[in-house]
Specification:
By secondary structure, the chain is α/β, with parallel strands linked by helices. Strand 6, helix 9 and strand 7 form a beta-alpha-beta unit. Helix 4 packs parallel to helix 5. Bound molecules: zinc ion (ZN). Zinc ion (ZN) binds next to strand 1.
Length: 342
């Protein structure tokens, strides 16, 4: 029972506004004279059914929160606090996902928005010791042509270091749009050396996961838990080296599984899946990175297995090989410490 907040790890699934602290959201709203619903500021985590209405409730909350993240100060503060909070949880590498269009109007357009985000990611990396890379994510509720614009923009800042764009994603309601229509945007990103990290296999099952794999060529899949519905597909994805960003509390909050115990962590782990646990949207789900590892412990994962999950998160990250080796050595050291309870 070693301290999981001291287990070095990489955090690969965290959304921009979704990372906000409730206290910061409240302050930003006050500054702007905006009123927030008690559902956002209260103590209850969001809990909705996994249908269109449930997603709508989730999205409405997210949009209200996003509406107060305006201006350079708010954007920089959000990134800095995400890095500080990750550092406190043993994260060494944060790959933060952003759809920059949502913040561009007040920041003079897409390019300056992304440049501010990358600049602060570099500064926060330097100050916190957590390397912050940015995943530019297109949204399923926008036109696929917008995704191409974003992919071209992302490509100009591609790299694996802090303050660079480390991947290209696709987020929002998985049931929206035709997946193949985003293939062109992902092809632009892939040609620029940006790995594909779309969401998939969360609200829809194996059939849609196959489409995501075929058209978007992911190196990592956001969620992908529904691959467990089809062991053959899961085995294929594992063999193809696709890693899984698994966010157990998010799955339960969004009604994908009734209970944390139902999230197929053990099944995926035993099938050889590379799993990077993530918090997704702590603002709405009231659960952060270490909580996901605690849930894995609740599933019976031993400290050696939890260390293996952490190693998998590092392997699945876009960090440089030397940085991966350094973090992995720290994980080994964590496991080599005597178990305080034995
Ligand atoms: Zn997500």
């Amino acid at each position: 029972m070693r301290d999981l907040s001291r287990l070095p790890k990489a955090h690969l699934h965290l959304h921009f506004t979704g990372s906000l602290r409730v206290a910061t959201l409240t302050e930003l709203a006050l500054e702007r004279g905006a009123r927030l619903p008690s559902s956002l500021t209260g103590s209850e985590a969001l809990s909705v059914p996994a249908d269109k209405r449930g997603w709508f409730r989730f999205q409405r909350q997210y949009d209200i929160a996003r509406s107060v993240v305006k201006g350079e100060g708010a954007v920089r503060r959000l990134i800095r606090e995400a890095a500080i909070d990750d550092a406190a949880e043993g994260s060494r590498r944060l790959e933060l996902q952003v759809e920059p269009s949502s913040y561009a109007r007040e920041l003079g357009g897409l390019t300056p928005t992304l440049e501010i985000i990358l600049d602060e990611a570099a500064l926060a990396s330097r100050d916190t010791g957590v390397d912050v890379g940015i995943i530019v994510a297109a949204s399923r509720i926008r036109h696929p042509l917008d995704a191409r614009t974003l992919a071209r923009l992302a490509a100009r800042y591609a790299g694996d270091g802090p303050g660079q764009v480390v991947g290209f994603g696709l987020s929002n309601d998985e049931r929206t749009g035709i997946t193949s229509e985003w293939a062109a945007a992902f092809a632009i990103a892939l040609r620029a050396g940006l790995p594909a990290m779309p969401h998939g296999g969360e609200l829809l099952g194996p059939e849609h996961l196959r489409e995501v794999v075929a058209h978007l060529h992911p190196s990592r899949i956001g969620h992908g838990v529904r691959s467990a519905d089809d062991p053959e597909l899961l085995a294929h994805m594992v063999a193809d080296g696709i890693a899984f960003e698994v966010c157990p509390v998010s799955n339960v909050s969004l009604g994908v599984y009734a209970d944390e115990a139902d999230v197929p962590l053990r099944q995926m782990f035993d099938a050889g899946a590379q799993i990077a646990l993530g918090a997704d949207d702590p603002l709405l789900f009231r659960s952060r990175l270490v909580d996901q590892y605690e849930i894995a412990r609740g599933h019976g994962f031993s400290d050696a297995e939890l260390a293996e999950l952490a190693r998998a998160s590092v392997r699945a990250s876009t960090a440089s090989d030397s940085s991966k080796r350094a973090i992995t050595r720290e994980i080994d050291a964590w496991l080599a410490e005597p178990d305080p309870l034995s």
